[in-house]
Specification:
Strand content: under 5%
Distance between the termini: 69 Å
Length: about 210
């Protein structure tokens, strides 16, 4: 038995753990490069950029939201003449970031929705399949993960609904773990978005 335990310990791979400040430094260093990958001409580079952004958002959601969301929102500005070509790539990135930036301890994406939703509507273009697909992909991701009711989104594996509900609906905290109002804060934030969603839904029907 002793030899078996010793052999088991020998086979175990001990992964080094980076200190929190080092993780933050790595995210800060990679984030601008990952964002630039979104607008590359090669699909493989774009896909890699999206994957990296999602991973970084899981590690440091506040940092990624602060850097990325304003840039992705600006790319959808219909009055901008310099960023309109970035709209499809920005919508695809938003679809990838929806889950980690909504399921984070603080729902960082919510304050941007009143701007993102109307500005994304021009993406529903019957003459541009790529842009339309990117727009619909963002809408699907958003409606799949935005918990307007205390129920699980369809794509979430039914592992632990109780833990999910407690984390998303009851534990609204910042990165340091300080409570910011809990369930009441989350409900208030969602309540502000609900009218916007209603108006946006009617506009989507009108576009179709």
């Amino acid at each position: 038995d002793y030899e078996m335990e010793e052999e088991k310990e020998r086979r175990e791979v001990r992964m080094p753990v980076l200190p929190d400040e080092d993780v933050t430094a790595v995210v800060e260093g990679i984030l601008p490069l990952a964002h630039q990958c979104l607008y590359n001409k090669r699909p493989s580079v774009i896909s890699a950029g999206e994957t990296i952004l999602k991973t970084l958002a899981c590690l440091r959601p506040a940092l990624v939201a602060k850097y990325t969301l304003p840039l992705l929102t600006q790319a959808l500005d219909p009055s901008s003449l310099t960023t309109t070509h970035q709209a499809p790539a920005s919508l695809k990135a938003l679809a990838v970031l929806t889950q980690p930036l909504l399921l984070a301890p603080h729902p960082f994406l919510l304050p941007f929705l009143p701007t993102l939703l109307p500005w994304s509507l021009p993406g529903l273009d019957s003459n541009d399949i790529q842009k339309t697909a990117a727009t619909v992909g963002f809408y699907i991701a958003l409606l799949d993960w935005l918990p307007l009711l205390p129920s699980l989104p369809p794509s979430l594996p039914p592992r632990d609904p109780t833990a999910f509900s407690q984390r998303l609906l009851l534990l609204t905290q910042d990165e340091g773990g300080r409570e910011e109002g809990g369930k009441e804060a989350w409900e208030e934030a969602v309540a502000e978005v609900v009218p916007v969603l209603g108006e946006w839904a009617l506009m989507v029907v009108d576009k179709c």
